[in-house]
Write a structure and sequence with these properties.
Elements lengths: L2 H4 L12 H12 L6 E5 L6 H13 L14 H7 L6 E5 L5 H11 L10 E6 L6 H12 L5 E7 L7 H4 L3 E4 L5 H14 L3 E2 L1 H11 L3 H11 L4 E2 L1 H7 L4 H13 L3 H13 L4 H22 L3 H17 L8 H10 L9 H17 L25 H6 L1 H7 L3 H8 L1 E7 L2 E6 L2 H8 L1 H15 L4 E6 L19 H9 L4
Parallel strand pairs: 1-4, 1-5, 2-3, 3-4, 6-7, 9-10
Antiparallel strand pairs: 8-9
The protein binds zinc ion.
Zinc ion (ZN) binds next to α4.
């Protein structure tokens, strides 16, 4: 038996998250004033048909307990629990037999119940009935025999004709809150002797989006050898929708750029729409922002994420490499902000350079080439450090291999001297990667595409300038942006 059926609520007190319905129904039962027709509307898996069966039991139980709770032991309760009581008629309106069953219902409803006190009709997915079937049903609802009760259930109440709705007392079943679902899953875990991460249960609850049936179904699928782990759930429930967003957000909060980049890599590799993903992420961040106002934590980090990813979303359509803006955003969000070079010094440098360049209109000779493959490269005319900076994004966009781009992103154009573009790296590892002939060739190609000529580059190292932001507590061991790149994209050839 599936866990959902096993743990399906069997009485009013075990119904999760629908207190408003339970209270009203119990009250009506107590006063013998139960309506003959109910319409239960609400998302899937929120307990509509379970509640309908509990009502059927409560109406017919041979020895009801306090608060009109069914005993779940008498012949009637057992008959309903085992789905063999003929006086409980369940109709699936979504099946082809819907219309026949409604016709059948009309013919037989006049007959008294055979075993129980009342006949209870549960019509699930009632919005699926044809117009004809609705008309047949309406006639019955207009004058139901005193021994008959109707419970109509639907996920789409707006599709039910007003004539039907007006004959019913309507209840809206709410999506079940995350906490309620998590609590229920915890109970099941204990009963089933399953060892479950609290985070894994939260993730399941989030994916189930207020549907307890889905949550229990997912719980069941995610058990491996009596254990449920967050990583397993995140990995298996896919790189789509809420799970992916949740995982991505988590990696940002934990300042794990490697995981964030891996996620982006996967989304892109799967051909998913990056703009859509970013839009969903921003919607999720907004949710977190509102939650964080209550909890008064992480608000600064979340606001910053919203800024960073809103900008990235705008940049994606123009980017030559579509995932690049997201990658940059993720790295920034993880707290890696490379400081701008010292502006006054740079201005002076540029001014000097410009003066010299305007003076001599000759081709700037390629200085002693730093790397063999640049030998013979002729620097293009009139290139200024300014224009390199202006075109930085374009240069990055032209570097196609992810790990080369990642490595190159670590550098900053600092000066243009003796015909060579000087790039300063914060990390020696990235510098070394770019220094490799094959990798450097790709950078040259990108520069050539942007500036229309060969440019010599000189690589240098500057003092590490990473400044993780202060609003989230630092983890003991921050993954370094280099190993991150290696792990995501593999070692370079
Ligand atoms: Zn009973």
């Amino acid at each position: 038996m599936s866990l959902y059926l096993k743990y399906r609520p069997q009485d009013f007190k075990t119904v999760v998250g629908q207190d408003h319905v339970v209270q009203t129904v119990q009250n009506a039962l107590k006063h013998g004033a139960l309506s003959h027709a109910y319409l239960f509307a609400g998302p899937r898996g929120t307990g509509k048909t379970s509640m309908a069966r509990i009502i059927a039991k409560a109406l017919n139980c041979l020895s009801p307990a306090a608060n009109c709770e069914p005993c779940n032991q008498c012949a009637i309760c057992e008959g309903i629990n085992q789905a063999r009581l003929v006086d409980l008629i369940e109709i699936d309106a979504a099946s082809n037999r819907g219309i026949d069953e409604i016709r059948d219902l009309r013919e037989k409803i006049v007959f008294a119940p055979s075993q129980a006190k009342t006949k209870v009709y549960i019509i699930d997915e009632v919005h699926m009935l044809t117009k004809e079937a609705f008309n047949a049903l309406l006639k019955t609802l207009e004058e139901p025999p005193s021994h008959a009760y109707f419970i109509l259930a639907t996920t789409e109440a707006h599709k039910i004709p007003e004539t039907i709705v007006s004959r019913c007392q309507q209840f809206t079943f709410k999506r079940i809150g995350m906490d309620d679902i998590v609590q229920r899953l915890k109970k099941i875990a204990i009963e089933e002797k399953v060892e479950a991460d609290a985070d894994a249960l939260k993730l399941i609850a989030r994916i189930a989006n207020g549907g307890l049936r889905d949550a229990i179904g997912l719980f069941e699928q995610m058990v491996i050898d009596g254990v449920i782990r967050y990583e397993h759930v995140a990995k298996n429930l896919g790189l789509t929708g809420p799970v992916l967003i949740e995982t991505f957000f988590r990696s940002l909060m934990e300042k794990e750029p490697m995981k964030a980049l891996a996620a982006i890599h996967d989304i892109h590799a799967q051909g998913q729409n990056l703009i859509q993903f970013t839009a969903e992420l921003i919607a999720y961040l907004r949710e977190q922002m509102l939650l964080s106002l209550d909890k008064k934590e992480h608000i600064a980090a979340i606001l910053r994420f919203i800024d960073i990813f809103s900008l990235a979303k705008q940049q994606i359509p123009q980017a030559i490499i579509p995932q690049l803006p997201l990658e940059v955003a993720a790295i920034k969000a993880c707290g890696y902000m490379v400081q701008e070079p010292n502006p006054p010094a740079e201005k002076k440098e540029e001014a000097k350079l410009k003066k010299r360049e305007t003076k001599k209109e000759e081709i700037i000779p390629a200085a002693e080439p730093a790397y063999p493959e640049t030998t013979g490269a002729v620097a293009i005319k009139n290139l200024t450090i300014e224009s390199v900076r202006e075109n930085w994004q374009r240069i990055l966009d032209h570097i196609e291999t992810p790990f080369i781009r990642m490595s190159f992103m670590d550098s900053e154009p600092v000066k243009f001297e003796d015909g060579a573009l000087h790039l300063a790296f914060t990390s020696a590892t990235f510098k070394d990667k770019i220094a490799k002939a094959t990798n450097q060739a790709e950078v040259h190609k990108a520069l050539e595409r942007v500036f229309g000529g060969k440019i010599t580059i000189k690589l240098e190292l500057k003092k590490m300038n990473l400044k993780p932001d202060a609003d989230t507590p630092k983890k003991k061991e921050k993954p370094n942006v280099i190993t991150m790149a290696e792990e995501v994209f593999g070692q370079n050839p």
